[in-house]
Write a structure and sequence with these properties.
It is built from two helices and 65 strands. By secondary structure, the chain is an all-beta fold. β17 (209-214) and β18 form a beta hairpin. The model is unreliable at 1-10, 17-40, 239-243 and 488-496 (pLDDT under 50).
Length: 808
């Protein structure tokens, strides 16, 4: 028997067992691939599990071979699986606990073992099977012990030697000797020490070590806190038996009289990029790049005259991601991204007005996991950035008057010619926006009570341009506006002749030929050049521009051929000239403009092939001539011959039943905006793929009428937090297939301890993550597993299937 389920919040598999043994459980991952995207401004997700991370400083980040993310914080070591944290802390009554809660460095060696460097507690090696820590600490009576208990960094070289930087010297440990069984928990391994000798200029320049790096030539580089950097040269002629011969330390120091020397003697980090460039982060001397041929340093420092210079001279951490972008973490300047092509830095800092900005300006660690997620550890918690998202996000920035004027977007219209590319945007409270795509500039048109020629209302619900070039703007309380856009260059120069003028059309209770309602939902010009206006409460209006009169079409309860409802949302003319009207509660109407009669398509409880909801929110005729209707209960496919509707709802995979907008891409896929993100529907396979805020959407909630496809195929969808712009072909799946791990095992809802008897017998003699087989008695007939797929881009979108073999 095969059981399938989807889950994000509760990843627990519960089984009631009637037999003493079960063969195996095979977890098969069905990942909804997370989407890559890219935006104008980088957005960061603040990872918060309760208060475990929001208040912590994350000093180091590591991903192990299983896929777990390990975080070193000032409150212990933490293992993250995308859903939960497992925390390891110091416990005074447990000699096998972490030796100190202040974790400065975490490292996994080539054997797959985890090493933890603490401040004050020395080195900890994690025993995965027993989930306990083996301590290596300084013993004043043992000259071969660790030189100091303040451990700052680890590095394993090509010889499988573990180098350990402490506050009192450099240590070397042979990993082969550790794992050969020569040393156990009761004996201490042999640490080789390298320290500063004031009498020897070829010794280590300073005993406080902050960073270690091996370059592509096999040379070791050591960054010290006061003695600059050291290049460690080994005697390559020494044989294996004489491997302990003393290396030579070549020193590079700061020289105040030489601007090509190292920028500062206190070193935070050393990093070699993929091209072999060596980068050094200093404590006040900026970012330094080492010129190997000339043995000189190129300094990147704060330049007040250059906004594209690095923004802090304290460089804590350096990291190159898979796309070869160099990221630089500073102390106070936030995150910097370096573009080598133009020699410029982009800055990402905490913005109190932007919840998606980085959480703190003091950066302590940067790391990219195997699925391409960039992690940034700060003094104010952990940040996550899925770098390659393709849903470009535009929103209002209160500190930038050139941004979108309001985040609630109600409609779009594209105005494109050879000279300019303009996107008109209707906002719910910020008036009308004119967005120059070429210049990336917004111009705002708003209501001014002292100017009768200004926009009539700042709540704009629609914008439309007719074939003569006139703009028509529908508002919430200000009726209809007619607007001829001025020349922007003249407007910016203050040319009063170019001052924008809005002509208002409003309801006049004493004039039956006026607009029927000031609540205008949509405007449309049909194939014959007639202008149609949908209102909320005033039905349909036809505007004769020559005579300047409005003809009203209203619901008449005594006339079944009248408009079905007076609250209208849109009009739509298909290729055959049929005229359709979506209503708020009267279903879908087809309007015969010659006879001025309406045919109604509504919900019929006795007909399963009728329209499935009388609230019709959107309509689209696809490239094959099929009509698709979005309602308050899903997607409807209309068969014009049989006049029947086929329904697609949440049970078919649709993200949400409320369909605000429908657009078609160049491959025949329909993109649907809903109240729970975007759904991409393939009509041929009748399958859905859903996208949410975790993929870069402005919000999961979109708005009626806020959708548009440009001539180039670019799509726009607006909602409660700005709008998204994207080319459908650029939306790609993340190809990374993660491993699945079992993270907990419970009997009768209680976690089974390691190495302790349960019901008078031992069930787990090692961690569940390391266990291959479990044997239970017939009394233990209710048990459960917690598990996770270690894909971190959007873990809440991971889907799972499982099968129990041989289970009756």
């Amino acid at each position: 028997m095969v059981y399938r389920f989807k889950t994000s919040a509760n990843r627990r598999l519960e089984i009631n067992q009637s037999t003493s043994l079960f063969k195996s459980i095979i977890l098969l991952l069905l990942i909804i691939m997370n989407v890559y995207a890219q935006k104008n401004d980088i957005e960061f997700e603040h990872v918060s599990i309760g208060q475990e991370l929001t208040q912590s400083t994350v000093y180091c980040i590591c991903q192990d071979t299983k896929g777990f993310i390990w975080l070193g914080t000032d409150d212990g070591l933490k293992r993250y699986d995308g859903y939960n944290l497992k925390v390891y802390r110091f416990k005074s009554n447990n000699p096998n606990s972490l030796s100190s809660n202040f974790v400065w460095s975490v490292f996994e060696d080539s054997y797959g073992h985890l090493w933890v460097g603490t401040v004050g507690g020395g080195v900890n090696r994690f025993d995965r099977e027993k989930e306990k820590f083996i301590h290596y600490q300084n013993n004043p009576e043992d000259p071969n012990s660790l030189s100091n208990n303040f451990v700052r960094c680890f590095y394993e070289n090509k010889k499988r030697e573990l180098w350990i930087g402490t506050d009192n010297g450099l240590n070397k440990l042979s990993l082969d000797s550790i794992y050969s069984g020569k040393f156990d928990s009761t004996s201490s391994p042999f640490f080789t020490h390298y320290k500063n000798d004031p009498r020897d200029k070829n010794s280590l320049s300073h005993n406080e070590i902050r960073s270690i790096c091996e370059d592509q030539f096999g040379d070791l580089w050591v960054g010290t806190w006061g003695g600059g950097i050291n290049r460690v040269i080994f005697d390559t002629t020494a044989d294996r038996e004489n491997s302990e011969s003393r290396p030579t330390f070549i020193r590079y120091n700061y020289d105040p009289d030489n601007h090509k020397s190292l920028g500062h003697n206190r070193i935070w980090s050393i990093y070699e990029d993929i091209s072999g460039e060596l980068w050094i982060g200093t404590d006040g001397g900026g970012l330094n790049k080492f010129d190997r041929e000339r043995e000189q340093f190129i300094r990147f420092q704060v330049d007040p005259k250059n906004p594209n210079s690095i923004n802090s001279n304290i460089i804590v951490t350096i990291y190159e991601d898979q796309s070869h972008t160099l990221w630089v973490g500073t102390d106070g300047g936030g995150l910097n991204k370096y573009d080598r092509n133009i020699n410029a830095f982009s800055h990402y800092q905490k913005d109190p007005f932007n919840p998606n900005s980085i959480s703190h300006n003091v950066i302590r660690s940067i790391f990219e996991d195997r699925c391409g997620v960039l992690w940034i550890g700060t003094m104010g918690g952990l940040n996550k950035h899925t770098r390659l998202k393709k849903f470009m996000h535009y929103k209002s920035n209160p500190t930038n008057p050139n941004s979108l004027s309001h985040n609630e977007v109600r409609g779009f219209y594209e105005d494109f010619d050879e000279n300019r590319h303009i996107l008109w945007i209707a906002t719910d409270g910020g008036g009308l926006n004119q967005f120059d795509r070429n210049k990336n500039q917004f111009v705002h048109y708003r209501h001014d009570p002292d100017d009768p020629g200004s926009l009539s209302d700042d709540v704009v619900l629609c914008v439309y341009k007719d074939r003569s070039g006139v703009m028509w703007i529908g508002t919430y309380k200000g009726g209809l506006n007619r607007f001829v856009p001025p020349d922007l260059s003249g407007l910016r120069k203050g040319n009063k002749k170019n001052k924008p003028v809005f002509t208002h059309y409003k309801n006049n209770p004493n004039n039956p030929n006026s607009l029927s309602s000031n609540f205008v939902r949509s405007v449309y010009e049909d194939q014959e050049g007639m202008l149609w206006i949908c209102t909320s409460g005033g039905g349909l209006n036809k505007y004769d521009r020559e005579k300047g009169i409005f003809t009203r079409y209203l619901n008449d309860p005594d006339n079944p051929k009248s408009l079905s409802h007076n609250i209208l949302l849109f009009t739509y003319e298909d290729r055959s000239g049929q005229f359709w009207i979506g209503t708020w509660g009267g279903g879908l109407d087809k309007f015969n403009r010659k006879t001025e009669e309406f045919i109604h398509y509504q919900v019929d409880p006795n007909n399963p092939n009728s329209l499935n909801n009388n609230r019709v929110l959107s309509i689209h005729e696809d490239s094959s001539g099929i009509l698709w209707i979005g309602t308050g209960s899903g997607l409807n496919r209309f068969d014009p011959i049989k006049e029947t509707f086929t329904h697609y709802t949440r049970k078919d995979g649709l993200a949400n039943g409320i369909i605000y907008g429908i657009l078609e891409d160049n491959h025949g896929n329909l993109w649907l905006s809903t109240n729970k993100g975007l759904s991409k529907f393939n009509p041929r396979t009748e399958t859905f793929k859903n996208y949410t805020t975790s993929d870069g959407l402005q919000s999961n909630e979109f708005y009626i009428g806020a959708y548009h496809k440009s001539r180039s195929g670019e799509m726009f969808f607006g909602g409660i937090n700005g709008f998204n712009a994207f080319f459908p072909d650029s939306i790609r799946d993340n190809p990374y297939i993660p491993s699945i791990v079992i993270t907990d095992f419970k009997i009768f809802n209680k976690s089974v301890p390691i190495g302790k008897e349960v019901n008078k017998h031992l069930i787990l003699n090692k961690s569940i993550t390391e266990t291959k087989k479990i044997k239970l008695s017939y009394k233990e007939n209710a048990f459960s597993f917690d598990f996770a797929a270690l894909h971190y881009a959007s873990p809440e979108k991971n889907e799972y299937a499982y099968m129990m073999e041989g289970f009756d």
